Each structure stands twice: as structure tokens, then as C-alpha cells.
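Researcher: For the record, we're logging two predictions in this thread. I'll number them. Prediction 1 follows.
Model: Prediction 1, sequence and structure:
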Amino acid sequence: MTPDAALILCRFLFDAAAVFLWGASAYLCWVVPADLAAQVSRRLRNWYILALVLVIGTTASLLPLRAATIGEGWSDALVPEMMRTILSGTTVGQAWIAQAGATVLLAISRLAPLPFRDRARAIIAGLLLLSLTISGHAAMNSGALRAPQRLNDGLHLLSGGAWLGALVPVIVILAMLRDARWQNDARAALMRFSTAGHVAVAVVIATGIINTFLIIGSPPLNWRLDYQFLLSVKILIVFVLVALAITNRYILVPRLARSPSLQLLKWATGAEMVLGLAVLGLVSVFGTMPPT
């Protein structure tokens, strides 16, 4: 595997883990009824541990991978001078320092008392996602545009991550609709997710449009450039995701009051998760490419 391919894989695994930690934790902390949230959080305990391990492993790997891609290949991956240069003289290094700091805090949050653990995880995972705005295309503009572009990109990451990351606990809550003890809270949680999803989708679309014009200055129609072609594919997938979310909110979720069948809703939510991973995969690839 080349350093470039390894970097893309590392970015994808990090993004997927961070999005899950942020979206799932934020949804359970601030949207789902408290008793149901505690029950779902316990069921997701192993997933939280796996995501934390992925964040730690990818963060530890990212700096050597950056050194390898910037330098002459794998031989430069662990060269101290190369890593010092990246850390001290590049936005990539600044982003890695912020990411590493947030990762340490995320690991420490595992020691927090249970009533505060989920809230701490949500806040720190949000900061972890925001660390991505320090480098890359979000930092390509200089002067007066740099701070607004980073703010816009941060909103894009948090809103998209809240939407996609929450799909995992939604799947768990769907299964709990069959349990009379949790049925009312589960219905409320699903309706609240659908309502909050309106806000998240609106922010994703608005900030995505702004990001596109800040980065390339026009719609991504020059498909001879890999960046613009892959960005166009991402936009298409997002529109499919929006269509699925609207179908869930206005057709499938209201049906729960009349029919106990969950199969269509489970399939639609699963499709959203798969398409969400496809979006993260595309971002991991074209995030390493020149936009114009």
C-alpha cells in the first residue's frame, strides 16, 4: 500500500469513528429521553470503545503518514526531523496537535462518572471534528476569509456528523419499539430525531454550498478534475440521503402509529448509514486533491 492510500484509509477510519462518537453521543444526551438514552448508551458501550480505539490508532498513525506523503515515501515516515518540521511549520501539524489533544481528552473522559460521561464524550468528539478545520481546504483562504471559512466548515462537519452519527442509536431504538417498557420513549426519540434532522439537513446543505463557492468559486462542473467530479458524486449522494430522510419523517415514522411493521424503516435507516459511509469515503479521497 502506498503512503497516499494509507493516508486516505486512515482519514476515513478517523472520520467515521469521530462522526459516530459525536452524533450518537449528542443525540442521546440532548434529544432522547433520559432513561431510554441511558439504556441505549449501555447497548452501544462496545461500539464506543471500538470508536475510541480507532480514533487513538488513526491519530497516532496520521503524523507518520503525513511525513511519508510529504517526504520521499515510507522511508521518511518516522524521521524525527520531518515530523518536527510538519508540527512546527504547517497547518497540518497544528491540526494534528489539536486532534491529539482532543483524543487524549476523549480517552480521559472514559473515567468520568456515568451521569457526565456521555456529555463529556459528545463535547470532546465535537471538538475532535472541529480540529479538522485547521488544515486542508478549510484553511486554503487567507486574510479575512480564513476565519469565516473555518467556521462554515465546522458547522458543516458538526451538522453532518450529528445527522449521520445518530443513525446508529436510531437503529437500536427502532428495535426497542417492540418492547412495551420503551415504546413511548422510543417513538418520542424517533420523532425528535426526525425534527432535529430538518435543522441538520438545512445546515449541511447551506454550509456545503458556501464551502463549494469558497473553495472553487463555482459549481463543481469541471469533471476533468478528480476533485470536482468526486464532489459532484458526494452532492448527489447527499440529495439521496435527504430524500430518504424526508421519506422516513413524513411516510415511514407516522406509519408506526398505525402499523407495528418496522422493516421498511430499518431498511431505509440502514441505507442512510451506508450512503453516509460512502460520503465519508469520498471526502477522505478528494480531501487530499487540489480543487482546481
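Researcher: Logged. Prediction 2.
Model: Prediction 2, sequence and structure:
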Amino acid sequence: MKKIVFLFTGLMIVLGAAAKPKATATTGVSEPAVDRRVELMTIVARLAGYPEYQSKFTPAYTDSLDAWFAPYKEHPAVEYMRMMREKTGLSYNAVPIMGVYLTDPPHLCPRLPLTEMQPESRWGVKYGTKFIKLLNKFYKEARCEEFFARQDSLFTQVEKAFGDVFAELDTEWYARFFGTKVEGGMIPIVGMAFGGANYGGHIVYPDSTVDQYAFMGSWWMKHGGQPLFNRTWFFNTIVHEFNHSYVNPILEGDLRLEIPKQKLFELEADHMRNAAYPNGRTVLNETFVRAAVIRYLMDHKADSATIAREMWEQIDRHFVWMPEAVELLGEYEADREKYPDFRSFTPRIAEFCNETAAQIDTIRARRAAEKERMKANALHVIAIEPFGNGAQDVDPKLTEITIRFDKPLVGRGYAFNAGPGGEATLFKFDVKNYSKDKTALTLAVELEPNHEYELVVLHGLSFVTPEGIHMLEDYLVKFRTRAE
């Protein structure tokens, strides 16, 4: 990342406008990076109690973070972020996008003037200006420069682990598929404390070029610092986040979609709200961003099992109309003379929303029948060893837990999450190894006495057989250790 140097006289720092804004966006796909500005923002959000930034998925980092910054939970910058969550709904993607809007530390100021929409509408000029002043104060008083210096080797290790995944991305596909080219760069940022979440964002420059950001958090870390991630799922997430750069501006700017997209949202409103998709705008964007990921896989000759897994991943997230949306984009691809770009296709998208709302009972019945046909041959967890799942007297001195499946797996991937009890019930573990016959995965664990534990074995892309057979539902491991 290029460093922009600003000269200041005394303490006269103008934060409402950038000293000399960078004239244009980057070009091409940048190397994946751990960005200290983004880490700084997530640290303050974590101290402010933002639930989405309380992850312990990267203990080699978050344990150090929590210990270092514990004395600063009541710092004015932290208190200000607490206030902003209440007042403006500051959360999720609005946190990291402010980071990349700033110059590199130790002197943090906007690279471009703050507006009511940039870096994100929940900041605004008034709140953003005040916060940046407090953030500079926090950076100095909490000795952030020293903390980050101690993390350099870990950051380098993480960046190296993800580098070759991003290199596989066909960036020219976006212009081919959407029929337009966004002038600017694609910048992947690997978040150290995103907690499994991924976000998108962008910065528009005065010459109308755009830097598109993919803030990536879909990964774990062994206690020794080694990153763990499912390569396929991570790659698909990259495609997903950059799709937003093309889909969102077109669908959000078409008034013909206002009523149809609300109809689509109402079909799964409760589930979508729970997933932080609170309105028709976000649900319509997510529908076609996700459908475009599947078209990307198809265009790049992914095998049928990979495509099916991605399709069902979206159906299980309550986009029950996903196969129909993918088919609709196939219609778009098949007639580019009629539809030269994605914008010209929006009338068909409006029709799709109306048709889906009218036929939702038929669509749901179709999905249910498809799932029943798949269940007979699906992959299942058949045992948790050396105790039975649900046991209430597990030995707290146990050092290994084995998850056994009913079919041999490929034996390369794994994906877990915290259970309903959150990270308070998630035990410390490292992935040890697959069995020789690839039917079992052993975890090295650390348990405490008299404690309730949960772990979700995630279905989808990670646990899969060589034939592409996978789990259809998540599997909850739940047990309690006995008192010593």
C-alpha cells in the first residue's frame, strides 16, 4: 500500500478535509493485506462492545489484543463509537470502510473530504470529523504503533497464506459479464478480528474512479498462528464481495425495482432481518450478487458438485429462489445482443421479483422435494468420540475429540462455527488430522471443568466426499464437562 505523507505544523490538523487527496483509484487486483487502519477500527469497535467484532477465531491475535487494550475500554474514542451505534446504527461494514478512508498511521486524517455518504452514510461529516480526532488520540495513548509492531510477523504470515487464492481471480470476467467496467482497483483486506464475517465497500475518487474493497474474515487460526480456511469457500466469497461493486449501483438506482424488491423481501422477511438484510434493497442485491457467483463458477467450468454445493448454500440461507435467479442470469448471458449490459436487464429482474412472489408456494415445494431426494445420499456425522454427543459428564482432561462421518471424505477442508451459546461455549481447539480412511477428523482440544460446550460442524463446501456428496444441514456438537 502506498504511503501518503502529510506535513503538519504543531497541532493544527484539519480533519474535515484531506490535505491533498489522492487523484485516482488503484488499478487491478492488489495483493491481500492486513491493514493496520482497518485493524485499528476493529479494535475500537471490539472495545465498544460491537457484537460482530467480539470474535476469538484468531486467538494468537485477539488474546494479545484483549490484554493490550483492556485498560482503554472507557477511552473517549471507544465511548464515541458506543454512542454512534445507538444514534446512527454504526456497525458491520461501516467500521472497516472508515479505516481505509484514512491516511496511514500515526497521523490519521481523511484521504478525501468527508461527506454525508463517504466513507459511509452512518458516519457523516459531523460524527466522522469528531471521531477521527478521538481516534488519533486513542492511537497515541493506547500505544497502537507498538502493538502493531509486535504483530508484524503474524500479519506477514497471514498475508502469505492468502496470496495465492486471490491470484486465481479472473478480474476480466466482471466486465464481460456485467457489460461495463468499473474504472479502478480491487483491494482485498484480510481482517484479523472480523469473526467469520465478510464485508464489501468502496471509495469514489474525484475523477469517478473507484477502489472496491473486499474485507475478508472467513477464516480461523490455530493457536500457533497458522491460518485455517476453506479455499473454495474463501474464493467464492472474494467473487461475491467484488460482485457488489457492479450489482449494487445498478439495482439501487432503478425506480422500477422499488415495489418488486419489497415483494421479494417479504417472502423471507424474518430470516433476512436476522441475517442483517433488513429491506428489499439488500435482499435484491444479495440475490443477484450470489446468483452471479454461481454464474462465475459455471463460466469457469466448475464441476457440477461445486456448483450444487454453492447453490444449496444459498438456498439454506433462505434465498429459496436462487436456482430461478441463476437461470434468469443464464437468460441474460444467452442474449447479449438484447441485453448488452446488466443495466438493460433490470426490467426482467423486476418481472422476476413479481413472478417469484406469485409462485413462492410452488418454489418452496420444489425445494422441499429436491431436498428430500438428496437426503438419502447425503453425508452425515454419525459419532462424536470418545463420548456420545450430548454427554453431561465429559472428562475435562480430555485432549482430543474425533468427529466421525458415514462416508470417506476428500480430507482437506473443515469448517466450524460457534454454537447457539456463542463464543462463551466454544472450546479451544486445533485441527489435528484426518484418519487414514478419511472418515474421521480429530481435534486437539483444551477443556475446563464444569463447563457447557458447543461446536457447529458446518455443512456446505468443507466436508465433502470425492463424489461431491456433502452434509445438508449443520451438525451441533454439544456436551458438558464434569466438575473436578
